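dumping this here before i forget
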Amino acid sequence: MATSSRTSRTSRSSTKLGLTVAALLAFGLTLSGCTALFPSSAPPATDSQSGEEIEQTDTDVFTLSVGQCLNDTDGTEVTEVPIVDCGNEHDFEVYGEFELAGDEFPGDDAIDEQADAQCLDLFQPFVGISYDDSVYGYTYFTPTEGSWTDGDDRLVSCLIGDPEAKVVGSLAGVAK
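structure:
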């Protein structure tokens, strides 16, 4: 039996999140069925002010919801992600999600194209300004072929982050 995961993918954010793409690739959201655009091998999260390690809770990537904040993960296919309180420093916030249509797995390229387009459409309503005018970038988790086939995974989770630094607080309505 195949393990379900999601994949982390690179999107338009790669131009803004250049270095973060490496982090996101480490963030590598491939949930044994979920894919994220940016993989990383992130060290423990620490508070920039105090230097103390931030409490993280590993959560099933299939249970992510809008408004949750998380840090980078290792690999491109992930099953769990490190969720943190949005009031603490974090790498990403889930700002949107949507279901892909279809019974047959459309392929990674088709999924990436749909995810990139829809995450871009969801960006401005969440942030308050267009992607092109924003300092923030985005990436997403997408189903893998295994999670699509084995678990009926059709969910894309859109993630926003700052390509230059960790974020404290929600980016909802930040208009930057």
